[in-house]
Structures are given as C-alpha cells and as structure tokens.
Design brief:
161 residues; mainly alpha; 7 helices; 79% helix
C-alpha cells in the first residue's frame, strides 16, 4: 500500500494538487462534495422508493430520473477524489477510516450489480412486482443506504484522524 500511495503522491497529479494555485485544492474539494451530494441525494430517493416509500410513484419513473444523476455524481466524486487523495496519499496509509471508506464503496458498487441482475429490477416497468420481489428490492435499497452512508461518513472522518 505504501508504494502505491508514494507513487500517487509523487505523480504529476499529486504535484499539481499541491503546487498550483492555492485555490486548486479548494475547488477540487468543493467539486468532490458536490459529486457526493449529487450521488447520495439520488441514492436516497431511489433507495427509499425501493424500500417502499412513495409507492404511488412508479419505480421505473424514479429510476429513469435518478439513476443517471447518481452515475454522474459518482463519476464526479471519483475523479475529484483521486486528486484529493494524490495530494497527500502517504499520510493516509494508517488511517482506519480509509480502510472503511473504500470497502464501503466497493460493497455499494457490488450492490448496484446485484440490483441490476434481479428480475424485479429488470421488469420494474413492465409488470406488477410480487411481494417477495418488493422485499428483495427493499433489502437491496437498505444495503445501498448503509454502504453509501458509511462511505461518506468514513470519508469525512479521514480528515480528523
């Protein structure tokens, strides 16, 4: 892990983040926060709907709106997060919150993959879902909320270790 973080910190990106304008880190950090807010705001809406909130709103309609917004927010958070990490990567090696954040993100992404493979998800726009299928979606939604909340909380706590 130390070799990778040393490489990241010594990279062109790491130097750019540390040595360019004093505003660079602040702007990248702001963009990171906006990416996380966009992701999590979309995830909360989708996951609450999966968990049974707003049942009168068709699931397919909500997913068509929030899924691309969540993907954009995630992409923005990843791109900016790499820059933030490269700024002082070697200082994060012993930070326990880093080792909580990245697995939570990984589990969140695995959960998205699991959701995309569920017949209930694929058929959400074409038929009424059974009670068992709605329970599956609710479970996936709850796991998603837990993963992304954990990733965000751990990410925030990295700065305080």
């Amino acid at each position: 892990m130390h070799d990778f973080t040393a490489w990241m910190q010594a990279s062109t990106l790491g130097h750019f983040m540390r040595e360019s304008s004093p505003w660079t880190y602040a702007i990248v950090n702001l963009a990171h926060v906006l990416g996380i807010a966009t992701l999590f705001g979309s995830v909360v809406v989708l996951d609450l709907r999966l968990m049974g909130v707003w049942r009168r709103a068709p699931l397919a309609t909500i997913t068509d709106i929030v899924s691309p917004v969540a993907a954009f927010g995630f992409s923005m958070a990843v791109v900016t997060g790499v820059g933030l990490f490269a700024t002082k990567a070697t200082e994060y090696v012993g930070n326990p919150f880093l080792y909580l954040k990245f697995p939570a993100i990984g589990l969140g992404l695995v959960n998205v993959l699991v959701l995309s493979r569920l017949p209930a998800w694929r058929d959400r726009a074409t038929r009424e879902l059974s009670q068992g299928e709605r329970l599956q979606l609710a479970l996936v939604g709850g796991i998603s909320l837990a993963c992304w909340f954990t990733a965000i909380a751990a990410g925030r706590l990295i700065a305080y270790w």
